[in-house]
Amino acid sequence: MDAAHYLALITDAFSKWEKLQRDHESIEAEMMKLEQLIAATANMLPDDTKGVVMLRMTTLQELFRLRDVGLTDAIRAILRAEAGNWLTVTNVRDRLISMGFNFSDYSTNPLASVSTTLRRMKPEEVETTTVDGGVAAYRWKQSSPAEKAQAKMAILSKKSNAFYGEPSPLTKASSDAIEEALKAPFRKK
User: CA angle, 10 as apex, 104 and 99 as ends, to 5°?
Assistant: First the structure.
């Protein structure tokens, strides 16, 4: 191949990249419109049902935002979403990788980075124990009723393998439970 052929490949790649960028912007605009619709419509619901809807939206927003945050914040969000469940360093690392967390800026391997970050987290935030013959495990400390409710909602709305693409059996149950909660106030008694 000569330089002209490589230049043609690069030009074609730039064209595709620019189209994807435009598509990305269009998708983000549509997502923002849907978020506004959900929030506005939720305002018409009774407070307890509205709270469930808004909590689910907030949880989903946080999960999608994780791809653009630092390691400590991403780990916190994973532990919060898995509140009550013990996660090993490997579990946390696998969830981060599956959701697309970018480890390229870290000089050590992902497992070492996650391990160090978990060990440095505040004891007020994270509990530790040992499982499976001495392996360290961590879980988020739930300190307030609001955090407990948020954690329960996160568990209901998560996807299998820690929310990254493959719907789990919980997804259908979660959707059914939310739909039921939304319909309950309007049933004839």
Answer: 30
